[in-house]
Design goal:
11 helices; alpha/beta; about 25% strand
Amino acid sequence: MRSMDSPAHIAVIGAGAVGGLTAVFAREAGLGVTLCLRSPLDELTMRTDGEELRPDLRFATSPGEVPPADWVFLTTKVQDTEGAAGWLRELCGPGTAVAVIQNGVDHDERVRPLLPEGTELLPTLAYMAVERVAPGRIVHHFSSELHVPEGPVGDRFARLLEGSRLTVRTVADFRTAAWRKLFTNVAANPLTTILKQRMHILGDPGMHALAEDILREGVAVARAEGAEVGEADARSALRKNTSVPPDGGTSMLYDRLAGRPLEHEHITGAVVRAAERHGIDVPLNRMLLTMLRAVDRELRAG
């Protein structure tokens, strides 16, 4: 762990789009950053606002190479969480806090069993349009916000990143915030991925109406789960989707185009499983989940 007068040490697990962006902006702000990844990289570059950033990062490919960190940012895809268990065991020491920067609505339940007892966990929602176009190459399109629960750990996280290009917002009702974030993914991600098309498809009136119906199912499920949401939240999510440039994409689409496994079980699957718990019929989301599973099987096989 660091001395009182040295910069905080952050270990970022995962060198995908979100991990790359958070590592670059944290290092740019003067924080010590180690990027933890499976395959070695010579450097990480990110294009943003017309700049090409080449931060001085430390890279590690084995948990034993890195001492315990002040902060761990877990940024892997949700389906890869258990694969990060070795990193989490080595990186978490006394006083370490883990920011789980992933999709889904069950950050704590998913990651808590992998952490040493007493480690602080901060569920984190990422609002950012960023794309990994090749190993070690990131393109940031727009937005770099992180939303966390109000409280001492969230306040420490905000202070940690103060002065960086990462904007941290604390929210009082994180359950509601997590479902609102899921709404931005639950229609756009499956539709762009299954059709292999960019966000311009939501400009089609029929496709727009379909997205609205998919989101209405999500709202009914979220309310049953205790989130304070309504149809206005679904409309807001769809406005966010349609404000993306027509040639923009979604994280799930980028994964399919790159031949990587999909995150469908923690987006559409989260809606379907919660619907089953409450006896709510969600035929559109069930259909999308069946189709996404078929796409994912093909990706994993090929």
